[in-house]
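=== RUN LOG ===
request id: a7f3
mode: sequence -> structure
chains: 1
length: 380
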Amino acid sequence: MVPTVVTGVGRTTVDCRPGIPAVTAISERDWRAAWRAAADAPLRNALSDPAGLPALREQLVAQLGLARGFTPPVAQVVVAAGTSEALSLVAEGLRTRLGRAPRFAVEDPGYRSGHRALTSAGAELMAVPVGPDGIDLAVLARTPVDAVLVSPTHQYPLGSVMPVGRRRALLAHAAATGTVVVEDDYDSEFRHRGSPVPALAALDTDGVVVHLGGFSKTLDPRLRCAYVVVPSGPVGAAVLAARTARGAVVAEPVQVALAHLLRTGAFRRHLGRVRRDYTHRRERIAVRLATSGVPGLEARALTGGLHAVLTWPGPATGAAVLARAATDGVLVADLADYETVRGRSGNGVVLGYGAVTLPELDRALDVVLAAVRATNSDRG
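=== RESULT ===
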């Protein structure tokens, strides 16, 4: 795999900011074949279907059946230009249906780009704390909202997994109160420990779940392709109407290439390869941090996904550790930047490991751990 680095002046920087998968891990043969299929597709004097290419939507349904345990009708699958655009579609659809700004409960800390997409589409946000089992359902029970955005399979960024019992409780609450549950199925493909957990959409018997998925973490974020599975009924109709009004946004050649990767099994083969690589890197992180010698250091989010959250006691802030690590050539993210209520999660950094080699990962861990020690010492 080609190392993921950024070349600076007199220095090679290891980029461990979250959100970058192992793009170069896909088989070049499969990748080229997908784009040949796109180039071979006949030209048409026609506009693209706003909901997405039927061939891709059919393959998405098949993949959801294999990987997530539910097979929605193709008509309920909508293609979007990334998860942020998908969220803005949902917010726009709800705003039109309600005739006012929809109120969303969101996880705190949580997916900051998604939160911005919601507010840009006219939604109001209520930040809800996240615990070991996901979003705090007691807060939801006390405060009415129109929709709740959750990442129950691997909460971003803290990595908590919502147990099946709490999933059912969330769905029951939503059905009783008319709340829409927007499920961001983030990182569901990469579970390193524990038993697989069903998607909320697979458990939904009342049509309250809008399910989001995409290819940014499985293939390449630059493809800008995601999908929305809407329920039948007025909410789904409103989201479909918003998609139709905006028109098609993902280029048909991209959709043809993705449909080819899904149809031929190349996508599943790729997932199998990178899943093994990510699990190996995850184990490397767990071992290194267990023997770090940093008092109170805790590693979170390692049950799945492509990142780890490192937290510690003491005066060193995530911003201070981030700055010190950057001077030594390692880029990470400050956990505080994901918070709405500052200080809710403590001091920490988010370290992505999807696109780095093992030597780069070792170097990054050395630098970050040294930065925590030094910064705590400076401020102690």
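=== NOTES ===
The mean pLDDT is 92.
Residues 60 and 66 are 10 Å apart (CA to CA).
=== END ===
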